[in-house]
Amino acid sequence: MKVALVASSYLPHPGALERHVDKIAHGLLRVGAEVELLTQHYERGLPAVSEFDGIVVRRYIARVGSARVAVAPGLWNYLRRTATSFDLVHVHGGNISLGLAAARARPQRLVYTPHTPISRLLRSPYGRAARAIVERAVYTVCTNQAEAQSLRRALPWAAGRVQVVPHGVDVAALRAATPFASESTVVLSVGRLERHRRVDRAVAAVAGLAPRFSLVVIGRG
Q1: Mean local confidence (pLDDT), 154-163
Q2: Helix or strand holding residue 192 (H, E)
Q3: What three-state secondary structure class fits 155?
Q4: Beta bridge partners of 218
């Protein structure tokens, strides 16, 4: 089987989406699939085409707008020419334009994992385009039941093509971690320390709780 994974960003850029797509790519390799990873980025110094651990990575630059909302012309042209040569094209991320480009390329099978809240995905001005992607996809994958139920309610005609695949965790790393004792009731925040993650809201909220609560923040940044 030949599979294309399409994402707005990929390693070495840090992030949950990038790691998620990388794990899927290596999992596909282990079961004998041929994998190409198509991504767009701004980072200079990385080759346009490379092979990493058996995965062919093709990088394109979105020269106009943001890589999170625009589509790199080279990526669109490559999809348009080659989409039907893949048994499966799997689009990851909340970049509606990128998902729509993959849908318009008319691959044999399209799978869509938005990695974004369904309420935001279907909100104007992108709601119509998001519906078009879901309509074209053989499956739309949500990472939890709540998001899947929201999508089924919003688009009942697609309910039978909505699947739930939760995010994986590194079980070995969790088991190897050293626990620490705490007499407090711990509130845990996990994620990269970036402004849009709004860790400041957790800090402000815990500051207003009883003294027995403490906040633990895990994340780089």
Answers
A1: 96
A2: none
A3: coil
A4: 190
CA distances 2 to 5, 52, 110, Å, are 10, 16, 13
* Interval 176-214: pLDDT, tens: 988 888 889 999 998 888 887 889 999 999 989 999 999
Inter-residue long-range contacts of 100-106, CB under 8 Å, 24+ positions, other chains counted: 100/129, 100/132, 100/133, 101/71, 101/75, 101/76, 102/6, 102/133, 103/132, 103/133, 103/136, 103/137, 104/80, 105/76, 105/79, 105/80, 106/136
Select from 114, 112, 109, 102 the least CA-distant residue to 88. 109
How far is residue 208 from each of residues 195, 205, 215, 218, measured CA to CA in Å? 21, 5, 12, 21
Q: CA quadruple 125, 128, 132, 137: dihedral positive or negative?
A: positive
Instruction: Give the pLDDT confidence of 26-37 residue by residue, as tens digits.
Output: 999 999 999 999
